[in-house]
Amino acid sequence: MPYRYAGKLVQGGQQSVLLAKGDMLFPVNEGETLDGAYRVESIGETQVTLMYLPLAREERVPVDSSLPVAASATRLDAAAAAGGGQAASATAARPAQLLWEGPQQVELGTRFEVVLRVTSDQPLQASPMQLRFDPACLEFVAVKPGKFLDSMDRNFSYRANPDGSIFVGASIQHPASASGAELLVLTFRTVKTAAAAELSIASLNLQGARGQAVAFSQPAALKIAISP
Question: Which terminus of the chain, N or C, has fewer Cβ atoms within 10 Å?
Answer without folding.
Answer: C
